[in-house]
Design brief:
Length: 107
């Protein structure tokens, strides 16, 4: 299986990071695809195949770590491209949340 799981929605509390500028405070790191649970179960192929799909957004996927799971919040198209290129590691910004949903990483 490509991902650890496929979800449809965010099971974690709202973390307050709304813009790419908010996420930019978190340095990217490598995350294995098979450790990720998606928060979207569908993908628009036009977005996946667009040559400029990251032109206006963050170059890195956004992942939320909560209660021992890694949730792919934004960047499903990047993760699928990674898998199609037969790579197992994705560069992502990982926001760590405590059990109450408060950020524990600098954000």
């Amino acid at each position: 299986m490509m991902f650890k799981g496929v979800g449809d929605g965010r099971p974690y509390p709202d973390h307050g990071l709304a813009t790419d500028r908010d996420w930019a405070e978190i340095p990217p790191r490598q995350v294995r695809l098979d450790q990720l649970v998606t928060t979207k179960s569908t993908l628009d192929l036009r977005h996946l195949l667009a040559s400029d799909s990251t032109f206006f957004g963050d170059l890195f996927a956004h992942v939320v770590s909560w209660r021992g799971e890694l949730y792919l919040e934004d960047g499903l198209h990047r993760a699928l491209r990674t898998a199609l290129q037969q790579r197992q590691v994705l560069h992502a910004r990982v926001l760590e949340l405590d059990d109450q949903g408060r950020p524990t990483t600098a954000a």
